Amino acid sequence: MTEVIHALPEAVPAHVPHRAEGLPVTFSDLIYAHFAWFRAARNGHRPGAEAAYRDTLRRFEAQHGQIVRAFWCTHLESGIALTESNRRLRQNALTLHRETDWATRGSPAIAAQLHRCDDLAIRARTVLSGVRQRICLELVAASASHLLSLVDKATAPDSGRDLDAAVKEEAAALDRAERYYRQAANGQAEIIYFAGMATVAVAVSLAALLVLHFQWRVAVAALVAGAVGAVVSVIQRINEGSFRVHYDVGRPYAFFLGGLRPMIGAAFAIAIAFTFASGIVHLPLDTTNTTDERMALVVISFLAGFSERWAKDTLATVAHQTLPDPAAKAPPS
């Protein structure tokens, strides 16, 4: 646990709340206990206050996890803390705790940036996992500590201009932390999306290949080629860094969206394959060899799954050429 102490506080709370053993201990309770202990320690009356603080700290960490980063104000009952709780068979949970209303009531600009810290911490804790979550929450906790230090009397800049410059620096640091969150969340969602896409594509392809083993079917071959084309298209966009996923919707929904992608590609591929196989659009081949025609249909189906835009344009062109124009006048009887 990291405790940052700067100077002897002038004001002290008139009453320090105490929670009975077994009752939930809030971060506000810990703030009051720490402030009372700090005041008593500097005034030479440490034993009783320290025991109360250590007991409150022990119970708080038992309920919320070990404090891995903390900043305590020295002149008012305010502070922030980042806790980590161990969970069986699951990753450790990191949580940002903040109690700063007393310190920031006269500094709306700093209060607004601390609210950004809360917002980013909630999203990072909910969406991210593993090392990405730890890095993001550590960055947010560091920014929150620096912001809170600006309103601590012992460390506040001497001039308003210095304070404004310091707030802008921390705002820029939070901007960088938010960019990291978005990149990490998108990368994490891409993994879930790809897992859903690959699962459906493999399942569909195995079933379709089993059918093709016994008899050639245009629709079945197109289904496999279109699903594979859709998967390759997404892999290419991920490799280029141009693929974006809705990462705030939860893992099951991202998995579901990924599973839809090969099905969409397969649907376009089947429509395109039937368009060419039926003769509506002629295959650009100089031979009537059956094997060549089948291979051409597979390639065209792959392209339809790979590029939805090409498939849509092709179907739109076919529809324009084959369907009657509703605006055209009916011939006279």
What would you note in describing this structure?
- This protein is mainly alpha-helical and 333 residues long.
- The N terminus is likely disordered.
- The N and C termini lie far apart (93 Å).
- The protein is 65% helix and 6% strand.
- The radius of gyration is 31 Å and the shape is elongated.
- It is built from 10 helices and 3 strands, in the order ααβββαααααααα.
- Helix 6 crosses helix 8, helix 7 packs across helix 9 and helix 8 packs antiparallel against helix 9.
Question: What is shown here, in short?
Answer:
This protein is about 65% helix and about 5% strand. The chain has ten helices and three strands; from the N terminus they run ααβββαααααααα.
Q: Can you summarize the main beta sheet?
A: 3 strands, antiparallel
Query: So what's the overall shape?
Result: elongated
Mean pLDDT: 83
How many whole angstroms does the radius of gyration measure? 31 Å
How many strands in all? 3
The structure class reads mainly alpha
Number of helices: 10
Looking across the biggest beta sheet, what order are the strands in?
1-2-3
